[in-house]
Amino acid sequence: MYKLRIVQSGKEYDYEPGASLLEILLAQNIFIDNPCNGKGVCGKCKVRIVSGEVGEVSSTELRFLKPEEVKSGVRLSCMVHPQCDLEVELMQKERKHEVLSKGYVPKFEKDLDIVKQVVNIHKPLLTDQTPFEDQIKEQLSDVEFPFSVLRGFCFKEGSYTAVIHREKDGKKVLMDLEEGDTTDSMYGIAIDIGTTTVVTALIDMLTGKELADSSMINAQKHFGLDVLTRITYEMEHPKEGVQALKEAIVASINEMIADVCGQTGVKKEQIYEVCVGANCTMMHMLLGVDALSIGKSPYAPMFVKAKDIETEEIGIHASRGARLYCLPSVSSYIGADIVAGAYVCELHKADENVLFIDIGTNGEIVFSDHGRLLSCSCAAGPALEGMNISSGMRAAEGAIEDVEIKEDGVKLKIIGNADPIGVCGSGILAVVKELVRTGLVRKDGAFIKLKNLEETDYRYPMIEMDGIKRQFKMTEDLKITQGDVRQVQLAKGAILSGFYALLKKAGKEMSELDKVMIAGQFGAHLPADSLIGTGILPAEVKDKLVYVGNSSKTGAYMALLSGQVKREMEELAHHMDYMELGATEGYERLFADCLMFPEVH
Ligand code: FES
């Protein structure tokens, strides 16, 4: 056993040799970016070894480390297997992340699946020994009474409140009994589990009011930043992978429930239902179901239907017998978050042509032709979330979120007005839009050659050479490389081709579109001029864009307050058609065409 000391916190940990430094740090809940899950291909897991001998720098590491970094002891933590006492300086600060928790809510009728009813127990007499259970059953004649509810009670006269769950088929089941009359309080939780962030809201189920919210980075980040890396983790850890991923997200949820309860004084025992919107993989991982089949062709999930179980079954802390409702998905890549979005945007009731798009690592698109729903999912890659970009980072303090190229220089807008330390999704999109607009990047995505610019041109000093490659200088330290532009180009090609393929399948022209709804955490931060300027969306839809915010959480909120909404979402998911782009004729050609950036006039 050796000691590991972290410079920033001064904390010391014991570790067994054998694992990589990345694994040792993650096991201690110390977060290190690891998009490639320790494969040595992303170069993001840098740490500085302050003391301790960890061996020679490998050739893999040399691909990602600058000479001055090597000199100062910087290493890729996934490539180092320490066997001594060690002092390590972390290079990524855990910063405050921006999380979108609000969104548009359509009008709907409240129709709770949880109801409360007061029952009275009279004192037993020698002449009337009616059991406690029978007295309650007499008053709740149409309610099933599981014997286990009796546990924890003793025979005491007085008023009790029966907490009753109405199941899908209308059957009523007693969840719990509470002493006294508690009919004036009933709380629930609506959750959106994103691959990156999790948002939780405490809802007063009687008034429909949101009382508090809490958000955090999905704790499964320790197992990889994206869905596929986490699935790979499950594959590589067949014994404990599924359980570890479930425990991580359940722990996050419990932490957020404790947080919203702390903010309001509501007790977790007063929470009767939890509703969750999430993509299909996150739903598998929440429920402790193997997600491997989602990661490989033909991408069949283990389940898509809605699930209604007890929260206790997966370890969520709430009232006794509290229910967990997981919204339905359509397919592996059209998850419950998209079903929620389509429902919230009332795509199933639309009397026009509406396109709904959730932009993230996967771009999910749903087209509503007067209520007939057709969907597809395109692998946009993580570039639009600021990942796989040489100086990329998530939207957090210090991230460049907007860029303008002007004659008097490059103007940057930075989250938190801090010093720039990287560029996030909206920033990378803004900079590429500007590069295209100013002609520094050509239609085919290549940087313009320096020899084609006059030295007096204001753009000339903005391009510099890195060996034989051209790159754009945002600041002295932060550059946009040709590779970065290519990443955005691939994302753009994927989304735009999905957009066109869906329209083609529906037999519609672009001009027939009435509305384009942008949903999701990342979409909300991508302004129309960036989406249009990079050609992610065609210029014709510029005036038709509507931003709907976090529709996944809103869907969970609506389901929490209405059984009718739950049934309608299940119907919607059942009737939404899914189109596999890869299996669509002519898709590769379409994708190649969509890679082109817009023409600049
Ligand atoms: S290089 Fe990707 S995690 Fe280390």
From TrEMBL:
PROSITE patterns registered for this protein in UniProt: 2FE2S_FER_2
UniProt domain 2Fe-2S ferredoxin-type: residue ranges: 2-94
GO terms of molecular function: iron-sulfur cluster binding
Superkingdom of the organism of origin: Bacteria
Record SUPFAM superfamilies: 2Fe-2S ferredoxin-like, Actin-like ATPase domain
InterPro entries reported in the protein's UniProt record: 2Fe-2S_ferredoxin-like_sf, 2Fe-2S_ferredoxin-type, ATPase_NBD, Beta-grasp_dom_sf, Corrinoid_activation_enz, Raco-like_middle, Raco-like_middle_sf, RACo_C
Protein name as catalogued: DUF4445 domain-containing protein
Organism of this sequence: Dorea formicigenerans
